Amino acid sequence: MPLSEINAERKQEQRLLERFMWLSITASVITIALKMAAAGITGSVGFLSDAIESVINLVAALVGLWALKLSAKPADENHNFGHAKAEYFSAQVEGSLILVASVAIIYTSVQRILHPQPVEQIGIGLAFSVAATVLNLAVGVALVRAGKKYRSSTLDADGHHLLTDVWTTVGVIIGIAAVWITGWQLLDPIIALCVGFNVLFTGYRLLKGAILGLLSEALPQDELEKLHGFLNSYVAEHDVEFTSVRTAAFGRDRLISLVVQVPGGWTVAYSHEHADAIEDGITEAIGESETIVHVEPAGYHTRTGPLWA
């Protein structure tokens, strides 16, 4: 495919990803309004803790949009492999903010357990919270699907955060409904406390994923299987061997480095044709990637030794 067409496709993909982030931002604003209304009307600390998490969603979506724009910048003299890792900074910021929010939620919950307050007009608060949950569910599913399709860690992280928020809100709704039915007011702060620990775990998971990404973690298992499947089929059809296969995921970008050992009698030009065919085959197998193919004569042992069989 000509370079102009590849660039045009990437620009179109970038615009689509940014639209998804704007969708997340819009959903977060509406959700915050609904949950704050529920908290204000009822005086429930459970609803309040849920609203605090949605505020974090909004901040994370804004940071995610910035990261997407930065990651789309082309390679330059200081960033030869582009800016794709910027998406991991978004996940780090989101994870850090979630940890802060969890501490605030847990603190507020403990204070309410020590100093109980009645919850009022629960029916109206539940209606607002249900509406916010439906909205988050729809947007969260859309973001996760788009994140997997376009290999965007930003969309994937934001989508999973929204889905976590959905389950959190479901728990709050069930708990507040139980308060409404039983009249046991202590259930409200206990629910909020559970929400706080759930949010704490979510933040830890996002930070762990972002750190692994910054450490140039290998390709996801499903992509590795596709890559190895192609290399196995190539070996079966041609008189070559592969060694020192290394991979790394940089946000949406992929880097593959490998050595192909060819018969010593092959010309440089013929070996180069095979190197090009290998690059094209890898792109077809796992999608657009930066592939570095080093050609060596058969039987030559690299200093690093064979890393793949």
UniProtKB/TrEMBL annotation:
TM spans (from-to): 20-41, 47-68, 89-110, 122-144, 165-184
Primary localization: membrane
Domain called Cation efflux protein cytoplasmic: residue spans: 219-297
GO MF annotations in UniProt: cadmium ion transmembrane transporter activity; ferrous iron transmembrane transporter activity; zinc efflux antiporter activity
Pfam short name (any one): ZT_dimer
Cellular localization per UniProt: Membrane
A GO CC term assigned to this protein in UniProt: plasma membrane
Topology in membrane: Multi-pass membrane protein
Top-rank taxon, per record: Bacteria
GO BP term, pick one: intracellular zinc ion homeostasis
Entry-linked Gene3D superfamilies: Cation efflux protein transmembrane domain (1.20.1510.10), Cation efflux protein, cytoplasmic domain (3.30.70.1350)
Keywords on record: Membrane, Transmembrane, Transmembrane helix, Transport
Residues of the Cation efflux protein transmembrane domain: 21-215
Record family assignment: Belongs to the cation diffusion facilitator (CDF) transporter (TC 2.A.4) family.
PANTHER family: MITOCHONDRIAL METAL TRANSPORTER 1-RELATED (PTHR43840)
The protein's name in its UniProt record: Cation transporter
Species this chain originates from: Corynebacterium lipophilum
Lineage of source species: Bacteria, Bacillati, Actinomycetota, Actinomycetes, Mycobacteriales
